[in-house]
Structure prediction request, 103 residues.
Amino acid sequence: MIDLEKFLHDHPSQPRTRDEKQAIINRLKRIEGQVRGIQKMVEEDRYCVDILVQISAIQAALKNVGFTITERHLNHCVSDAIKHGEGKETIEELMNVLKQFSK
Prediction:
């Protein structure tokens, strides 16, 4: 489990646009629905392989959300930090998170 306190900071961030927020929220709601579907599959004693396939789909969907957020972070937050002379710290922070992401 990631210690979120270790990663939360007071750096200013460029707010996401309404469309960016909505796209991420929509993806997360679909993932939430998939998780509820797996819960139902378990309750119904569905075939293990079918459940595992759904778990794999959720993992892929979460990774894609993470990649979308990472891409935005690079294009906005990291880019801005580099312009303001704080690139080294921001890149180091991102690398620490990506190491957790890849576990």
